Each structure stands twice: as structure tokens, then as C-alpha cells.
Amino acid sequence: MMEKQRLVIIGNGMSGARLIEEVLAHQGKDIYDIVVFGDEPYGNYNRILLSNVLAGEHDPADIFINPLNWYQEQGVTLYAGNRVQSIDPVRKLVHATDGIEVPYDKLVIATGSKPYIPNLQNLYAEQGNLKTGVFVFRSFDDCDAMIAYAQRSQRVVVIGGGVLGLEAARGLQNRGLEAHVVHVSKHLMNVQLDMSAGRMLRLTLERMGVKLHFQKRSNALLGTECVTGVAFEDGSQLDCDMVVISTGILPNVDLAKNAGIAVDRGILVQDDLSCSLPDVYAVGECTQHRGRTYGLVAPLWEQAQCLAEHLTLQSTPRFYQGSRELTKLKIMGIDLAVMGDKEEVEDDDEVIVYSEPSRGIYKKLIVRENRLAGAILLGDGTVTPRVLQLFDRHEELPENRSELLFSLSHEQQGLNIADLPDDTQICNCNGVSKGMIVEAVKSGKRSLKVLCDATRAGSGCGTCMKDVQAILEFASDGAVIEDPSVHYYVPGVPLAKPELIKAIKEQHLYSVSAVFNVLAAGKEDAGSKAGLASLLKTIWGKEYEDERDSRFINDRVHANIQKDGTFSVVPRIYGGVITPQELLRIANVANKYNVPMVKLTGGQRIDLVGLSREQLPAVWNDLGMPSGHAYTKSFRTCKTCLGTEFCRYGVGDSTTLGINVEKRYQGIESPHKMKLAVSGCPRNCAESTTKDIGVVAIEGGKWEVYVGGAAGATVRKGDKLCVVDTQEAVLLYMGRFIQYYREHAKYLERTYGFVERVGIERLRQLLIDDVDGICQQLDHDIQASVDAYVDPWQEASQPVTPAQFMDVLQPVEKITAL
Amino acid sequence: MSSMMTSGRVVYNLGPLDRLPRGEGRTFLVEKTMVAIFRTRKDDVYALQAQCSHKGGPLADGIIGNGTVICPLHSFKFCLMDGQPVGNSCASLKTYVVSVDEYGNVLLQMNE
């Protein structure tokens, strides 16, 4: 085994500690001995939550992410309360206090930032530290000292009306002080907010009793022993017995600068977070990347993730591209989230504003090229998660912008997570309560995926996922880890679907094991196999190299597994139309094999439930009907109404079309199941508008085609894709949509989520107007899949794997003990 | 491994490795005990109690990969090597010593 290298990290704050977590998560312990230096004599805590501690809303103990013993458990050497004095890049070692000298193979500087302190007269005491009663608000110790001093103070002046200043003011007000904020600009949080939002925020804070003073430049502190007031350039004064300075931060660059590392405002880093000297990297608030420095948590974490991937030699490490910034004001009773631009920048920028001063609500969106370039959301947090997601992922926006500004009234939105009692059941499939989820978050499960894996919440029907996400955000106070695998098609191969498809095609990967070998370093992930198998079959059709171990049991035996390990058999009944002979045959089979239950399904078919695996081939043979695919992620069934043949209202021949739909698309695999329907008139008796694809005949010989409907765990009315004149055209557009869904949906994403994500307008452009010129290919590819279809029940006579249809095997001999 | 038998144990020959499809599991009835036997794509073999500790799911029908099996009923994951639950709090599963001998036969060791 390769000899381990030493990774030295200077700084144990939010970025340094996060980097350690990321390196460990990428099996970095096999490569490195990790040594970390921290200024403060503690483990690692969540600095963002200091405001809540100050406000008395959080117990100080709760904000520790990793206590000292965590480092021991992880085998990480922590020098806590030990400052690195200098870096010797030639001998590759660092010097710390107490004469400690530690050599490094790789060095990471994560020294963070320090408060910027303006030049005020009478600021310092004789010993050179800040005058008694004057504080900066940066560290745990600062917070502690402020809480202690606040007990004997009546009136605080906070210099600086930015996020931290406002949080400090409100926090101290909570502790009984009269809080004043003095601000140089004309409105609060002028870096993040436009004038209107600043004004609205001002009103809200004033209503809470915070005293605000604008266009006030402080120039001196008053008082000899202790601070007694603040004097301003305009000659006015404000008496107080406590002052908090919150006028911005400066990156800590001295250590790097003295070592000859290139710095500007921050330490200059490349996209791989490397500095100007070899084997030296930097992350966090101390860095400057592409001209920008960051003072928020999400960018630090992105940087830590990228750097960890580089340090641990991942095959395709991410390069840091800069971050999209989100600011949230953490003041109880104020809901404020700001992201990106606050004003229009380009001529074509679209600005959407909603303002409701009496309730303190202000919402503004800046839209550029149909994507979100910025947003201010004040006074209504219910829409924030959706807007943030669209901003973060740079996704296209819905045509109707008001959808973004308001939560839909008919849905149970705005579930106030904070107010729910702990025993409220959140996941109704697995019986997971709010308390269980919160506990898991507190124990470090801070990404949605890890949280769901650990609690099983959201792993049933999935509809509670939004609530789980909300609880995660609530319980982690924004310290959420975005799991990169949520963007992957399957968790075990680190590629989003388009990149994965590209790699599969370019490198001619025809089997699931080939994909693992080439794209996942040979590591086969059980949870990814079925998704890959589905995708490969979609891509390669007949050329796909089927490996049966990649299939879920249902697809190995072509039946649906039941709770007792028996199976159900659903023969295909095209369009729900059946002959008496077929009915008799089904009845005879049910009798002959003593089927425990015969059940009519919701898809107009007959289910024979409770058969053993050994009975399956004989049952199929006796039925003499093809598989109904009631067990796989594929086209399932096409429900029909009577239509023109008998119904007195029918205007279109729904049964014939339904039969043709089912004959054409039977067994076509897809990311999730597809349930279809054809109705013969607008009365819509086949419930076409709540199917994955639904067709409704209308007067004049026309057919409406709906996509993305659902009537299960989620209820959604399908969107009208098109209106066509012929049955052939219905089949054509249906096939196009199916193929596009197969190629672009995430695994296990139903059409209702997919259609909503892509948008019906976009789908019409792609599949009807053919704006991207892909239709011919889609038509060709779906035809190839149709042609490749083989009824899997033909395996009855020729099992594909040994003992495919055996319930149990016996040993061949017992060897007597020697 | 079969030569290291101790008293009180008995070995069953489950037949040639090819009775098990590569990457899949099969359930064996050994005297009165049901055992799930797995063969990985690298031809390693593992043996676990046949039914999961959650709701008695048939583990041999699960998808395997990276040393784990996912139960087909509710997707709980277990380690093939030691039967421990992975990412869930189900009870751990009983494991059995299983190996392939020089003739390619799968040998399962059990307490008598």
C-alpha cells in the first residue's frame, strides 16, 4: 500500500472543518494523515448560528458540529488553540506556537476572515485592546463576552446595518437592551437589498422596536474607562453603554502573504483551489477566486467539496466555478432571503415585483434569459425553497411568473415546520415523525439523501420529500449539505443523465457491469443497477447486453413480488377488451392452480395473486396470453371507455385506439411506470386527464393528447400536449413523448414531475414544433424499441438463468464431518 | 476452508458454482434451514439467513453490489459479509461460512 501523505489544514472554522469531513467522506484517510490547526480552543462549531445563541434561541452546546473527541475518533490530529505562525514553503512545513513544527505534503489554508474595524477615535484602551464595552461579533468567545456584558447594559449601539449587525441588534434586544443601529447608507443591508426592500425591512424592524439611524458615519467613541456613547461626523452623539462593531470582514491573508503566496484582497486561488505555490491550497473566506471573495457559508462548502475531490484524487473532480450567493437574515419573525442581483443589470432583464407594505411583504425577481438572475423575498418564506432551487440550478422558469411569487392556494403549503410538535408523522409510508428527522439532522445527517437513507423518510411514495427538506433546513439552520448525488442519474455513478448517456454512447458501454467498470472505478452499487439497466436498454435497444443480476426481482421472473414472497400474474388485456374464451381460460387457470385471490385491477385487467415462482411458467403457458407488465417500470396499461362502438355519447373509437396503443407500446421500459388511457368523448370516463399520457376524443374527429397527469400519491391534471386529427398522429406524438421521457427523466421520476420540470411549453416546442430538430431521431428510436419488444413470458419454456423459476434449491450432498 | 472443520459442524455440498447465476442469489433449503446463497460477479460467495429481519423478505431475490444486498420488499440494505444492517436499524442477519472448493463446488458449513 502507498505510504500516506500528510495533509495539514490551517484553520478549523467552517471551511477547514468542512474540508476534513469531505476528505474523510472520499476515503481520504487511506491517502492522508490529517493535521489541523485551530485558533480557538474548541472543536468545530457553526459560526452562522452565533446570532441565534446571542438571541437566546439556541443553546450554545447545540451549535457544535464536531466536538474535540470527534477528531480523535476520526484519527485527525487537532491542535486546538494553537496558531500557525509561519509557513516554510521550501522545506514544506508550518511553524506553530509552542515551537511546534509540522511538515506537510499538501497544505490547505483556511484562515477565514476577521472583522473590519473602522478608524474611530478613542476606540482602544491603553493596553491596545478594544475599550471596555466595545465588541466585534465573530467568534464563540465574542458571543460569550457580549452575553455577559449585556447583563449589565441598558442600551447598545450597533455600528453597521448589514446582516450581522441587524442580527446582533435584535439578539441583544431580546436580552433586554434598547438596541440602536447606525448605518452609513440610506437603507439597511444595502449590499443585498434594493431601496424598496430596505425600506420594508426598516418598517418591520422598527415595529419590533429596533431604533434605526441612517446616513450616520461614526467617528469617535465616548467614555474613558468604559464606552458611554458614539459620536458622529455630523456632530451628533448617541449615549449607550455597549457598542458592537459590525462593518464587514477582511480575509486573513497575512500568513499566506508572508510565505510568498500571491494575494490580493484574498489569497488567490485557481479553479482547483490551488495557490501560487505548489502543494498549497486555500478555501473559504480567506480566498479570492476569479476576483471575488465570499462571506457566506454555501460558497465555502462548495469550495471544500471541490478541493476534497482534488485532494483525494477522484477520477473526475469538480472544478470550482464560483458560487451563486444566498443571504438569509436570521431574525425571529423576519423572513428574508436574498440571492443574486438585486437590480436589473442588462437592458433585457425582466423585473417582477410584488409589494404589500401593510404585511411587510416584498418579493422581487430579476429574470434574465428566462432564468433567475436574482431575487429578494421578504416577509413570506413559503416560496423561498422553490425560488432558491431554480436560482441554484439555473433552471428555466415557468412561463407564468406569478407561480413563483405565490404558493398555490389549493395545496397545503406553508406547513410551518417549526410549529409542528415532534410526534407529528411526516412520512406516512414509513411512519417517520418530525422528531426522528430532527434528531437525525442533529446527529450529522445534513444532506437530504443521507437523511432519507437514515430515517427512511421519503423513501415510500416520496410526496413528503418537500417536508423532509423543510425540516432539514429548519433543524440544521441552513447548514444543509447539498449532496451532489441528487443530480446524478443513479447514486453510484457520478454523472447527471445527459453526461452519463454521452459517456455510455461514446465509450460503447453495453452492459451495467461495463458502466461500473469504466465510469465508477469498478465499484458496483446495488442501488444503481436497475436504473442503469433501464437506461442502457433505452439507449441500445437490441444491442443492450442484458445482465439479469441488474434487474429487480420482478423483472427477473416477470411477475410482481408480494409480501410473502409469492407473485402476482396479470395477463395483458389490450384496451381492457376481452373475449369470453379468454375469461374462461383465466378462470380455469385460477381454479387449476388454486390462486388465493383473483382481483380486478384499476387498469381494467385481472390479477391472479399469490402464485409461487415455480408455478409461473405453467400458469403463463396455460393462459396463452402475453405479459401485462404489471411489475416493471414501463408502459403498463391503456384504460379505455366504450367509445363509439356502443356508447351513445362516443365521438371517437377509444377501444380501437386503446388496443393499438397497448399493442404498440407494451413493455417499453421507462424511468418509471406509465399508465395510459383513451376516452371516447369529453366526458372522459377513462380518466385520461390524470394519466401519464391520456387521450380524449372531441367532436370533429379530433383527439386531445394530455401528458403528465397523475391520480395517486400526487394528483395532477395532465397538460395538453396537442390536438390531432388521426389515431396515427396520436400514436406518433405519444411515442415521441415516451422516448423523450425515457431519455431525459431521472430514474424513478414519474411523468407528472418530469412534465412540470421541463414545462409543457418547452415540450410542445420540442415534440410538436421540433425546434431542436430531434423529432426524427425520437421517432426512429421509439420505433427501434417497439421492434425490439419480446414478450418476456416466452421465457417460460426457456429459463435464462439457472433455477430462474425455482423457489428453493437443495444441497447435493451432506459431507460427514471428519 | 472445509478442511478446517471443527466438531459439531457439518458441511453441505450445494453443487457446482454454476447453479448460481453470476451476481444473483438463490434460496437453499438445508435440512430444515433456509439459507440465501449469493454469487457476486467476481465469483465470491456469501451465505445469509434467507429471510430479512424486518418483514421476512426473501433476500436471495435482492439486488447485490459492493458487498451488500438490498431486500426486495422494502429496500433495506444488509452487508453480505457480516449480516449487519447498512444505513438502517434492522436486526443483523445470521451469516454462514461458505466457500468454493477446488472442484468448483459450493460448500456450506453449518452447526449440526
Descriptive notes:
- The complex is a heterodimer of chains A (818) and B (112).
- Chain A has 818 residues and is an alpha/beta fold.
- Chain A is 29% helix and 22% strand.
- Chain A is elongated, with a radius of gyration of 32 Å.
- Chain A starts with a strand and ends with a strand.
- Chain B is built from no helices and ten strands.
- In chain B, the strands form two sheets. Chain B has a six-stranded antiparallel sheet, with no helix packed on it. Chain B has a four-stranded antiparallel sheet with strand order 5-6-7-8, with no helix packed on it.
- The radius of gyration of chain B is 13 Å and the shape is globular.
- At the A-B interface, helix 16 and strand 41 of A face strand 1, strand 2, strand 5, strand 6 and strand 10 of B.
- Strand 41 (813-815) of chain A pairs antiparallel with strand 1 (9-16) of chain B, so a sheet runs across the interface.
Mean pLDDT of chain A: 91
Radius of gyration of chain A, whole Å: 32 Å
* Uncertain residue ranges of chain A: 409-414
Main pleated sheet of chain A: 5 strands, parallel
Radius of gyration of chain B: 13 Å
What proportion strand of chain B?
A: 35-45%
Portion of residues within helices of chain B: under 10%
Ends of chain A: how far apart? 40 Å
Layout of secondary structure:
The complex is a heterodimer of chains A (818) and B (112).
Chain A: E1 5-10, H1 14-25, E2 32-38, E3 44-45, H2 50-54, E4 64-66, H3 68-73, E5 77-80, E6 84-88, E7 93-96, E8 101-103, E9 106-109, E10 113-115, E11 134-136, H4 140-150, E12 155-159, H5 163-174, E13 178-182, H6 195-207, E14 211-213, E15 218-222, E16 229-232, E17 237-239, E18 242-245, E19 249-251, H7 254-258, E20 267-269, E21 280-282, E22 287-289, H8 297-311, E23 326-331, E24 334-340, E25 350-356, E26 361-368, E27 371-378, H9 384-393, H10 402-405, E28 425-427, E29 432-433, H11 434-442, H12 448-455, H13 465-475, H14 497-506, H15 512-519, H16 526-540, H17 553-557, E30 560-561, E31 567-569, H18 580-592, E32 597-600, E33 606-611, H19 616-623, E34 635-640, H20 654-665, E35 674-679, E36 693-698, E37 702-707, E38 710-711, E39 715-716, E40 719-724, H21 727-744, H22 751-758, H23 760-767, H24 775-788, E41 813-815
Parallel strand pairs in A: 1-2, 1-9, 2-5, 9-21, 11-18, 12-13, 12-18, 13-14, 20-22, 34-35, 35-36
Antiparallel strand pairs in A: 3-4, 6-7, 7-8, 10-19, 15-16, 16-17, 23-24, 24-27, 25-26, 26-27, 28-29, 30-31, 31-33, 32-33, 36-37, 37-40, 38-39
Helix pairs in contact in A: 1-8, 11-13, 21-24
Chain B: E1 9-16, E2 25-30, E3 33-39, E4 45-49, E5 63-65, E6 68-70, E7 77-79, E8 85-86, E9 95-100, E10 105-111
Antiparallel strand pairs in B: 1-10, 2-3, 3-4, 4-9, 5-6, 6-7, 7-8, 9-10
